[in-house]
Amino acid sequence: MFGIGKKKESAITLTAPTDGYLADLSASKDPVFAAKTLGEGFYIKMEEPEVFAPVSGTVTGIFPTNHAICIKTDEGAEILVHIGIDTNAIKPGIIESSLKVNDHIKKGSKIAEVDLQRFDDLGIPKEIYVFILNSQDYSINKCCVDEHVYEGDRIVELAGRK
C-alpha cells in the first residue's frame, strides 16, 4: 500500500564499449543481427582495439574465442557483447580476454582486446555489437545513432522492467 517498502526500479544505462561510428542494428550486414533476433541493441564500427564493459554485472558466459561475452546486471538485464561477424570460428589469440564466468565487472572496465590487423587480414568487419537479450522486458530509449561516439558515451537506457 502506498508503495512503502517497494524497491524502486532504476534505469540501466548502456555505454559505448569503444570509440567509433554508432549504427542501428538494422544497418548490419549480418541478417540475424539486423533482424534483431538476439534482441534490441546497437553496434559500433570500432576504431580502437580495446573493448570495455557497457554495463556493470556478472559474466554469465564467454565463448572460447572471446568473441562473445554475456553479462547479467544486478537489475536483471542480460547483455551480450559480440565482437565481429562470423567470429565464432576464429583462432584463439585474435581476441584476448582474461574474463571468466562469474567474474563481476564494472562498467568501463576493459573486457577484451582485438587484433584489428588480423581482422583486416581475415576480412572480418571491425564491429562490436551490444544486444539486450531480454529487451522485451524493458522500455528502451536510444540516446543517439548514426554518429561518432567515444568509449563510455551513454547509448541506451533501459527503463524499469515491464
Explain what you see.
This protein has 162 residues and is mainly beta. Helix content is 7%, strand content 41%. It has two helices and 14 strands; from the N terminus they run ββαββββββββαββββ. It has helices spanning 31-34, 116-122, and strands at 12-15, 20-24, 40-46, 50-52, 57-62, 68-72, 78-83, 95-96, 104-105, 110-114, 127-132, 138-142, 147-149, 154-161. An eight-stranded antiparallel β-sheet has the order 9-5-6-7-11-3-2-13, with no helix packed on it. Strand 6 (68-72) and strand 7 (78-83) form a beta hairpin. The chain is globular, with a radius of gyration of 16 Å. The two termini are 20 Å apart. Residues 1-8 have low confidence and may be disordered.
What is the rounded Rg? 16 Å
Which series of helices and strands comes N to C?
EEHEEEEEEEEHEEEE
* Sheet with the most strands, sense and barrel status: 8 strands, antiparallel
The count of β-strands is 14
Low-confidence stretches: 1-8
| Oligomerization state | single chain
Distance between the termini: 20 Å
What percent strand?
A: 35-45%
Mean pLDDT: 91
Binned, the helix content reads under 10%
